[in-house]
Amino acid sequence: MALDMAARSQSLDDRLSKRNFDLLSKFIYDYSGIKMPLNKMTMLEGRLRRRLRATGMSSFDGYCDYLFKHDGLASETVYLIDAVTTNKTDFFREPKHFDYLVKTALPDILKTYPDRRIRSWSSACSTGAEPYTMAMVLNEFFATSAPERDYFILATDLSTDVLQKAQRGIYASELLAPVPAELMRKYVMRPADPRRQEMRVSAKLRSKVGFARLNLMDDKYPVGDAMHIIFCRNVLIYFDKPTQQHVLSHLCNCLLPGGYLFIGHSETVTGFDLPIRQVANTVFQRM
Ligand SMILES: C[S@@+](CC[C@H](N)C(=O)[O-])C[C@H]1O[C@@H](n2cnc3c(N)ncnc32)[C@H](O)[C@@H]1O
């Protein structure tokens, strides 16, 4: 017990050395594409403290030796990556994209492609607000404009932690605040106990979204048939230019001609050689 307490207080006070920071930041960059410049050292230290406790390590030196000298990466990578990804997301984030989807992209896709099922992909889905927003919007669209057609959404992320949360589909009520009242009534279940501040996305909506782990750094994206719609929003900002080019080229390979790519409002494709043309602010169509 005394030893345990000593180890704990040591881990709380322990600091990440520059040498260990360099090792970690190189690994994180190589594995996930996420840039980890020196000004993120305090952030990384804070986020990894929990991993020190979880692995029973009493210092960052011990943790980094375990990772890089004793094969700890094999079991620790998933948790290390969970700890360093930034997962901020919202329902109906950047709402103009959803307007464009309904008013322009979907009618155009239905005209071009006779497929019964339209395939859509949220490629950095975080805890699920983006794919479930897509599902609400697509469900409404198909019910009113094309009941003979259907849709399916693939939602992927690198972090297993967010994927588990997304699969459960349970959210604090504040996060659901941007969902219009009518869609809340249709697609979000109120808790049996009204004192609980959490709500769950309906089973119907959950059944339309399939979650999987996919690293956008990989050389192959095993997503099956090419997509009609891809969202890759608010993740390119964490990558440098060569990684952005890699990711965007691979996403284009997964998009049907005439299919639509949506990126975040603070992201750009300027300067990249890609088979897409801009059709609206941060919306592109595959050529
Ligand atoms: C800020 S969230 C964006 C969520 C959502 N797209 C949105 O706009 O609200 C960024 C997400 O990208 C994921 N991510 C970071 N690097 C990744 C990679 N190499 N492959 C796949 N996902 C990654 C993170 O785990 C995180 O969930």
Describe this structure in words.
Helix 3 packs across helix 5. Strand 1, helix 7 (129-145) and strand 2 form a beta-alpha-beta unit. 46% of the residues lie in helices and 18% in strands. The chain has helices spanning 2-13, 18-32, 41-55, 60-68, 73-84, 96-112, 129-145, 160-168, 181-187, 203-207, 241-253; strands spanning 117-122, 150-157, 170-172, 188-189, 198-201, 209-213, 227-232, 255-263, 276-280, 283-286. The protein folds into two domains: 5-84, Chemotaxis Receptor Methyltransferase Cher, domain 1; 96-286, Rossmann fold (3-Layer(aba) Sandwich), CATH 3.40.50.150. The chain starts with a helix and ends with a strand. A seven-stranded mixed β-sheet has the order 6-2-1-7-8-10-9. It has 287 residues and is of the alpha/beta class. The structure holds S-adenosylmethionine. S-adenosylmethionine is lined by residues 32-34, 85-89, 93, 124, 126, 130, 157-159, 162, 215-217, 233-235, 238, 264.
